[in-house]
């Protein structure tokens, strides 16, 4: 009879063992930008995204949240008085998205340069850069109602293996 294999330990508490979807709506006004950033920060920390290995990822996600909500407030508020922020944690990744009802599809996610003299587009270029540097992807999709969802998905840090005795 072969020797019994030890049972693997349970995943550590926090984000490594959590999968889920969290959504919240906010009015498309300036004050929603810091409120959304703080809500995302508090949610991710509550799910265990803090400490070694997560600080850089968390800071990137908070900057992405600020830029995506700012864009919805600045460019979509006229046709979309409300926006929706969604955070999805999957096995090995986290996705942050902002949905609005405006049909305009931002071009900055698909261009590598912002036209000189233009002040717009730099925030989405920053989102694209942060996402790429983290090894993630970002894009924009149309909703069934004619609006859009702008999202960024980043990989979670891999847990360090336990030292073997």
Automatic annotation (TrEMBL):
Pfam families named among the record's database cross-references: HATPase_c_2
Positions of the Histidine kinase/HSP90-like ATPase domain: 31-152
UniProt cross-references to CDD domains, sorted A to Z: HATPase_RsbW-like (cd16936)
Keyword list, A-Z: ATP-binding, Kinase, Nucleotide-binding, Serine/threonine-protein kinase, Transferase
Gene Ontology molecular function: ATP binding
Source organism, top-level taxon: Bacteria
Name of protein: ATP-binding protein
Lineage: Bacteria, Bacillati, Actinomycetota, Actinomycetes, Kitasatosporales
């Amino acid at each position: 009879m072969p020797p019994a294999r030890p049972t693997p330990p349970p995943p550590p508490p926090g984000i490594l063992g959590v999968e889920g979807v969290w959504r919240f709506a906010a009015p498309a006004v300036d004050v929603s930008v810091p409120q959304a950033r703080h809500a995302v920060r508090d949610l991710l920390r509550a799910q265990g995204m803090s400490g070694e290995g997560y600080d850089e990822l968390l800071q990137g996600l908070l900057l992405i949240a600020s830029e995506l909500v700012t864009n919805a407030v600045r460019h979509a508020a006229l046709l979309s008085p409300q926006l929706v922020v969604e955070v999805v944690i999957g096995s090995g990744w986290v996705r942050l998205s902002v949905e609005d009802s405006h049909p305009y599809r931002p071009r900055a996610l698909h261009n590598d340069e912002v036209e000189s003299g233009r002040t717009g587009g730099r925030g989405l270029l920053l989102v694209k850069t942060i996402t790429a540097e983290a090894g993630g992807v970002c894009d924009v999709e149309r909703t069934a109602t004619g609006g859009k969802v702008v999202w960024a998905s980043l990989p979670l840090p891999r847990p360090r293996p336990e030292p073997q005795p």
